[in-house]
Amino acid sequence: MALSMNDQPRAALTTTDHTAPRATPARRALRPMAIVVGLIVLVVLGMTLSPSNALELQYATSLALFAVATNLMLGFGGLVSFGQGVFYGVGAYTVALGWMHHSLSFGEAMVVAPFLGAAIAVVLGALALRTRRLYFALLTLTLSQLAYVIAENQANFTGGTNGVFGSMVPTWLLDPRNSFLFTLALVAVSIAILWKVTRSPFGLVLRAIRDNRSRVEALGVNVFAHELAAFVVSGFFCSVAGTLFVVYSQSSYPELLNWTSSGVPIFMAVIGGMYSFLGPVLGAFVYEFANHFLIQYTQDWQLVLGVVLLVIVLLRPDGLAGAGSAVAARVRHLRTVRATHDERPGVAETGEGDAS
Amino acid sequence: MRLEVRDIHTYYGASHVLQGASLVVEPSEVVALLGRNGAGKTTMMRSIIGLTRPESGSIRLDGEELLGAPSYRPARLGLAFLPSGRRVFSSLSVEENLEVARRSCPRRSGPWNTERVYGLFPKLAQLRRRTAGHLSGGEQQMLKIGRALMTNPAMILLDEPTEGLSPAVVGELGEWLSMLARENLSILLAEQSATFAREHASRGYLLEKGTIRFEGSMDEIWASAELRSALGIAARDDGTTGA
Amino acid sequence: MAQFLTEAMGTLSDAGSLFVVAAGLTLVFGAMRVINLAHGSFYMYGAFLMTTFVGTSSGLRFWWSILLAALVVGALGLVVQLGVVRFVVGKEPLTQLVATFAVFYILADIGLHIWGDGARTVMAPLAVSSSFTLAGAYLPVYDLVIIGCAVLVGLALWLVLGHTSLGWMIRAAVDDPEILQSGGVNLRRLHLGVFTAGALLAALAGAIVTPQISVAPGMDQSIIVTSLLVVVIGGLGSVVGTALAALIIGIADTVGTLVAPNWAATFMYFAVILVLVVRPWGLFGTPER
Question: Measured between CB atoms, does C178 come within 8 Å of chain B?
Fold first, then answer.
């Protein structure tokens, strides 16, 4: 309790991060149930909303994958990559260029894109992971911008500044419901795989590196290899998210690759909560709906986003998920205090620092 | 200058490091703060300066409350802090280090200036253009003391000055401390080496698990076998220094 | 020879303005260990304020406008430091990057409200808008103005950082901020001064290049990337490194344009990658502790 209220993220994560070590069987069953209910709600919404709103929901769903995949490095690996737009763009461009140059069918491109993203991640990761912390963030930002410049200037191959537009998805995917269900299915499977990755021994080592790099190094673990693997897995799924951008917009353009769009999944993770697995999903939906909603009423989306980011990063670095679990912990704490108080008056205060 | 610390509680993250510790340093007095590694000596020093903020209690310097004051305040009042380890401005030269110290407290006047510091430490004068990061441990210790003197302090907090020094340099350090005491500076000396502290301090506090376990003259501390073992003073010291 | 002179002059002038922006960025990083992603916004504000102040006039007012633009943005820097940046000093890089990114968004939006989304131009005074001939090459006088300004900024920084106690204090703040503060220095005030100076330098560069560019929204986004390239190559916090790196970036750009126009824009990125592969902490930087 005392720890999770702490505003130092490192301290916060040691307590809020785990899937409830103190969970009762009932609470343990709650999480999968919540996920199933969430999926059902999404499907129902996608089937019943107006086509334009359903399309927005589809876009937010694909961004959720982008955010979770980015957060594999950010929240779990402690690696701030400002270059995930590269992989998102590679995903989108693989489909778009495959269509434009008549070299890949949609189906082929959907399969090739993630592996291409992963392959590029091997190269860029090997390069960027030579640096650490701030330099890593800046170098990945640079790589993102390099990809952007290439896409913009190699007009013969990429369509240049305007990007690629056209009917690049199969006709059955033009139906909004099909396209929504397709996106949701792909995102759900991808996020499930990422969940498995974070719970695997590999995921544990990754978190251990984040928390105490030198100790893990001293244990003889190849830190570089683990970080590179995280980079590659993240790149793979960011590319999947990128292919879904094409399903959503039937286009691909250079801005997908640049540093500001690389910032987007980071913001989603920060808003939703980078220290919980599903926090970025929450962040993606909040971000995209706020964006969609606000654009109808005001031109000042950037201003609002800026202020929200400032408030979160300065006051609540563990995001909405962190705020939520702090509230839940508080409620639980009050309940235990009351229970203890009822049983043994006078010792209620001993629960104070010890709830975690 | 008189320092009075009363009942301070300091936390480091979630751990309760100082649990209601109090101490007093009278004008021109040399006081030792003893205790084993992890007892809370450094936290006490950092709490007094304000680098780690106590949650409650009171720290008074000649009557002025320091609790909640910014951590540049004590130095301006004449309380210099010498941290342990190699903490000099490593990219600056020796002379620039001294000059930065002087400029840090521009309103304090007194007998100390660069020339007097060089007079006290001729070695520093020879090394005045040398980058501080390249000095030896003993030379850095000299520079740290010189830097403190440049602010014309009335009291000095010394955190583990002997840590990592060779026995020869520890001997020199002892001479410098005696000299500072002769200048009527009050000194609070946090030391793990009780024998070193005994040579310089008249009074001592024994810090254990965040509280003051014993307070008294150094002789009293030495007289008690229990306190000696708490400090880890070797048995062979018994014959020579026992009461 | 004539072509070489033309290219050399253009390169030096580009490198000069880039150096002035990047010097502000690296100065702030040096003293505060904060990378300010809103630094490009100060540059853009400097340029836009210039268009406002100069208006349609030419002549002496141009020079006053540069000064005024720099001062106004300096004040803006003060506000940003007090309102945001001081809370992220000493925090994780992610916190710093997201917070300053947020400031970048906010300033971009406010800028749109003030100046709209169209492009604007500024005319240099007649006295410096002509060209002169040297060894058969026509060279713009205004390039000399920019180069001169960069040299002055470089000299001033060298003097202040290397030869005044204020400069030593700024360097001491990098070495050990805690000890500097416990020695009696009000670190927040030092940071405030440095951040203001950094914003001022960015605005100065933005204002001074206005006769050579079209001032438009989005220039904040592109200049921050180029200045990041410069400080990363030079080594974060090193002014000398920044000067050298600005030159490298300028040359990479010019050579790129001459050799492979299609790939010209990528040359500076490859320069960065090349440097970082050999020295991950930049030419004059020190490995992170």
Answer: yes
